[in-house]
Structures are given as C-alpha cells and as structure tokens.
Amino acid sequence: MKKSAKSIYFAAPLFSAAELEYNLKIVHILEEYGYKVFLPQRDGYLAAELTGLNEADLVKKIFARDWNEVQKADIFFAILDGRVPDDGTCVELGMAYAIGKPCYGFRTDSRVETMKLTYNPMISGCLNALFVGSNGEQAIAALTEYLDHHEL
Question: Does 61 score more than 60 pLDDT?
C-alpha cells in the first residue's frame, strides 16, 4: 500500500444521514492511504449549524471557506452519485479543474451500466479518473486497487 502526504478536498452531498455516513467511509479509506482530507461536513461549516447570520452572510462564510480549501488542496475528489450529481459538488469540481487540480470522481449508481455517457461531458471532462461500481463495494474496490498502485 502506497502512502501519500498530499491533501484532498472531498466534495459530496451532505444532506442525509446516509450521505454523511458514506462520505466518512470513503474519507477513512483515503486517510488510510495517508491523504490529509478536508471533509466539509467534518472540517468546514454546515449551514444548519451556523446561527446568527443572515442568508447573505451565511453564503459568504461557507463559500469562502470551501473555495479557500479547494485552492489549498493538492487533489479534488468528488462523490458523483445520483441521476444528476449534487450541484454544489459540481461547482467545486469546476473550480478545482479551472485552477489545475487533479480531479477524481467516485460513483456507485447502478444506472451507470445503462448509460451511453456516464455524465454530461462538462463533468467527465474534468476528471483524471472515475471510480465506478454498480454498488458501493465495487466502487471501493476500484478505488483501493488504484491506490495500491498509484497516487491520486
């Protein structure tokens, strides 16, 4: 198992208990390989937890923190599940790509097997690699196989 000292910005939806739990599972794998991971649900600001701010100030605070962390990271890694990936994740992907970060995607959606294109080419075109499986364990196996032989 290769170890890396690089940092990762981990983008993913974080609005349900299942999403939060799965994000932690994937981040744990990346951290086992030595990556330092910024996970917004753990290391950033969550709108539901910020009090005393109006909407404009809330938006500025969250956006500035996440943008700063995307810029600081060596690598961008995104969970891209769903018929359409999370809109915030896609914005962060575009930001990371635009400033030259290597970008990786992770998808466990069973609809992948029936699609001619996995994503809109504007998403796929940003990715250095996409780890895919029709279930979570297959995608995790693809990711760990890659990490056993390569750095992100």
Answer: yes
